[in-house]
What does this fold into?
Amino acid sequence: MTASSANRLSVDALVFDAYGTLFDVHSVETTAESFFPGRGTDLSRVWRAKQLEYTWLQSLMQSASQGREDFAALTAHALDYACAALRLASTAQIRHRLLDAYLDLAPFPDALATLPGLAPLPRIILSNGTREMLEPLAAATGVAQHMDAIISVEAAGTYKPSPRVYQLAVDHLQLLPLRIGFVSSNAWDAIGAKAFGLTSIWVNRTGVPIDRHGPAPDAMIESLIELPALVREA
It folds into this structure.
């Protein structure tokens, strides 16, 4: 369902995923390419895929005897794996520079163009990232000034798409799940939010098919530019 064909969604607040939705995780390619010419794209893709995989696996493995590492640690582990898998000769200095690049991601242009016009709807970020990762990034890119709060999964003690994570948004906003619009470019995240009961909006910038493992999001848009028309009355 695209924004042009969808009925407008009636919501009282908007919750945004951060990585991949507001911030371009693959903007690290520039730094990666400077160290590994011709391999920057490959490194970025493997790094991101393994980072997400580690969040899911750690959530499943978590027990009284098996703790959960935070997103910063998993991001570092995923980078180490990606370099090893691609047989890239990394060093401690290169590793440090690449991890720093992840703290300085570029915002998507459609995010910066859209967020101001969504007021007065309350807008918050709900992310796998730690507050130490998210808050400086949001401030440096100008995203923070358009957000009412930044919420990390750390408060839930697990990662998306656990229902405990989406409950954080409900608790913060004090709204029924259906009255909260959840916006993510990650299909698995949009599906997780829909399964929890939020009104889910998938930002499908790359035109890929929807995953089949859960309920479809309430709407699909190709850019955040389409969001204001979707969540406002004509």
About this structure: Confidence is low (pLDDT under 50) at residues 1-5. The first helix runs from residue 29 to 35. The two ends are 18 Å apart (CA to CA).
